[in-house]
């Protein structure tokens, strides 16, 4: 299985970071391609996208200022197959990816993603008090996996906090 291509460029408003690609994503070459994954529905329902995109349209996020990557590039059936060593390597690679791109915010799609990245065990949903990379806002959102037990409206409510926060960050910039 091949890793899938990141969709990244400099000065994005927001970069989404997942655990790693699913087998379905590796097969199709697109992020969040598993039909049970609710990522594209969450983005639309939270107001982050004007319409519900399909996984095949993942590259279109760049046009609206969003990027996509993962903490680990190896595709697996589930995130619990990721090794400690892969997370360690992924943490360093992710810092090297994000730092020079200077996004306004990074949204970690899953508390576990941010726990692995930051080394913090206890953390709230939403904007974090301290960022791992200074000058870039860290935002923790629930995983979009169909395995997540949170109700869809609870998940969407957390993602709905991103657009106004991005608006504030853009105003500070101007």
From TrEMBL:
Domain Uracil-DNA glycosylase-like: 8-153
Pfam families in UniProt: UDG
Keyword tags: DNA damage, DNA repair, Hydrolase
Source organism, top-level taxon: Bacteria
One annotated GO biological process: base-excision repair, AP site formation
Keyword Hydrolase: yes
Protein name as it appears in the record: DNA glycosylase
Organism expressing this protein natively: Cytobacillus solani
Organism lineage: Bacteria, Bacillati, Bacillota, Bacilli, Bacillales
